[in-house]
């Protein structure tokens, strides 16, 4: 049995492999050609000011329509790409494509910021900072218009390296946002150790906040803490008007979720922006 990782390596199935490992091999194999075959695209989900409804930001989310596997969601293929290292290439493509799109929107959406999801391996890749600089410069974008979303998982384990990488990115003027805040390895010491601009309150807390007093109290506490630390707050997974109103009342700055819009193709985002300008909420 030959099992080698890396590009172009020979891989044979092993009868003793777990179902996950077998699925991962299939996904990894198909994903290797995905960029060249133009099977990847980005969709954009609006992030709006809770007060005014203005779309200040969008989150770019990766989509993969595989010729052999059909549609595969990022929750299935990103972990595989993280394990194999392919996420570095995928991430570079996402960065370049999001910046290209922002450049293409310069007339219609001149102030829009885009946020992209970044994996640990990408952030710790020595070439990453230069890639970010190049992507911004290639499309004449101010660094303030790019935000990088990291999860708490990225911060643990590589503290010193991560701190150095974030410091250089912040020096460049790029914003850093802590994604899915409150899940997993929450440690409040991250908030003082790392240069973070934004907290994204995880969907799981937002989902329960209208019916569960405890979820409501938890979200209110995160908002109050974030405010006192001078952080921007984004609520993820806002699905109802009731949640949006409660978050606004707490002083949460930004809302993201199906109640505002699903992630949409680039052309549809322009339509969304035009509608917003007319109705203003
Ligand atoms: P995330 O960064 O937390 O992205 C938010 C996810 O929640 C997205 O799922 C989005 O479609 C979904 N969502 C947004 N609003 C709502 C809502 O109101 N209700 C519900 N139920 N869901 C909502 P998606 O696009 O499937 O992405 C899943 C995860 O995959 C992302 O979580 C992110 O961790 C990862 N991912 C996506 N694109 C990339 C990428 O380009 N690079 C990396 N490294 N990871 C990515
Ligand atoms: Mg995210
Ligand atoms: Mg998130
Ligand atoms: Mg998430």
TrEMBL record:
Domain EAL residues, every copy: 24-277
Name used for this protein in its record: EAL domain-containing protein
Record organism: Duganella zoogloeoides
């Amino acid at each position: 049995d030959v099992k080698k990782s890396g590009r172009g390596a020979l891989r044979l199935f092993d009868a003793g492999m777990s179902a996950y490992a077998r699925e991962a091999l299939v996904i990894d194999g198909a994903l290797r050609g995905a960029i060249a075959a133009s099977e990847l695209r980005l969709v954009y989900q609006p992030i709006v000011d809770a007060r005014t409804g203005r779309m200040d930001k969008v989150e770019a989310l990766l989509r993969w329509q595989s010729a052999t596997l059909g549609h595969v969601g990022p929750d299935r293929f990103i972990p595989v790409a993280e394990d194999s290292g392919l996420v570095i290439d995928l991430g570079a493509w996402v960065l370049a494509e999001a910046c290209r799109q922002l450049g293409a929107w310069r007339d219609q959406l001149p102030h829009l910021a885009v946020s992209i999801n970044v994996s640990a391996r990408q952030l710790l890749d020595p070439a990453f900072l230069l890639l970010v600089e190049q992507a911004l410069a290639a499309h004449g974008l101010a660094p303030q218009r790019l935000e990088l979303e990291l999860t708490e998982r990225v911060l643990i384990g590589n503290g010193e390296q991560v701190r150095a990488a974030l410091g250089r990115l912040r020096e460049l003027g790029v914003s850093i946002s802590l994604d899915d805040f409150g899940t997993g390895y929450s440690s409040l010491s991250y908030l003082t150790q790392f240069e973070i601009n934004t907290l994204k309150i995880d969907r799981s807390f937002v989902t329960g906040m209208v019916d569960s007093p405890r979820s409501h109290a938890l979200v209110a506490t995160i908002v109050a803490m974030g405010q006192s630390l001078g952080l921007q707050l984004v609520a993820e997974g806002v699905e109802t008007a009731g949640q949006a109103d409660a978050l606004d009342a707490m002083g949460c700055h930004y809302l993201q979720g199906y109640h505002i819009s699903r992630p949409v193709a680039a052309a549809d985002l322009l339509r969304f922006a035009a509608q917003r300008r007319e109705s203003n909420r």
